[in-house]
Write a structure and sequence with these properties.
This protein has about 240 residues and is mostly helical. The chain is built from 10 helices and no strands. Helix 2 runs parallel beside helix 10 and helix 7 packs antiparallel against helix 8. The longest helix is centred in the C-terminal third of the chain and has 25 residues, at about 155-180. Its main location: membrane.
Length: about 240
């Protein structure tokens, strides 16, 4: 990346880490489209690697609120979905992957905005895990399905449980991508360059995560995701 691109992506990562640390979702929705515009070849590995320390931090910070039953069912579905995500990744070129990321970002954001309130059960948890496995392995974006099932739960439960599900799923996705030969040094180097911005965003989120209006910020994240996804689609044509 050029110096200008590094600054741009670092700002996106900082903001994305702050939003996810405060609300429990949003990192990949914000960071992946920006990275896809600058360096589509870094997707999804760079996003997945950056999310490992971020989600461990969020999970540990509010570990007492984790919904372990829901997380178990989500993880089961997540494991099944990883195979589908790997197939999507193998079938698409870098430019087509950018189109897929842009379209899936917009679709996920719209669904999250329009979904009515409901109480999730086992079927909803497994379905969310399955969809997350496909989209996160292929693009690094997996938050919207999990946000859907937890959007009406207490904020600490939402943040900590989604972080746990992300953490387990990201390890599975990275192991699968490594076995398939889809990880190289440039992706890991880019993640290392962006790590300071991630740390700053995560630390800032600690200051506000108990006071911020989570619903308003989640809506803002989805609107931002729609705009970012649209920009990525336009850039890919």
């Amino acid at each position: 990346m050029s110096a200008q691109h590094l600054v741009l992506v670092s700002l996106a990562v900082l903001f994305a880490a702050f939003v996810q640390g405060a609300t429990g979702v949003g990192f990949a929705l914000i960071a992946a489209p920006v990275i896809g515009i600058v360096r589509p070849d870094l997707l999804p590995v760079c996003v997945l690697v950056l999310m490992l320390p971020l989600n461990f931090y969020v999970m540990w910070r509010e570990r007492g609120a984790i919904d372990r039953t829901g997380a178990s069912w989500i993880t089961g579905g997540r494991l099944l979905g990883t195979v589908g995500g790997l197939w999507v990744l193998a079938a698409l070129s870098a430019s087509h992957l950018s189109l897929f990321v842009g379209a899936s970002t917009i679709a996920a954001a719209l669904v999250t905005l329009m979904m009515p309130a409901f109480s999730p059960g086992r079927t909803a948890f497994v379905a969310a895990g399955l969809v997350t496995g496909v989209t996160e392995t292929a693009t690094g974006i997996g938050g919207p399905p999990l946000a859907l099932v937890y959007q009406h739960q207490p904020a600490p439960t939402m943040r900590s449980t989604i972080a746990l599900c992300f953490l387990v799923g990201e390890l599975v996705s990275l192991a699968t991508l490594m076995a398939a030969g889809r990880i190289d040094g440039s992706q890991l180097y880019a993640a290392a360059l962006l790590l300071p911005a991630l740390v700053v965003g995560a630390v800032l989120s600690r200051v506000v995560h108990r006071r911020i209006n989570g619903r308003v910020l989640r809506i803002f994240v989805q609107v931002f995701a729609i705009v970012s996804g649209a920009a990525l689609l336009l850039h890919s044509f």
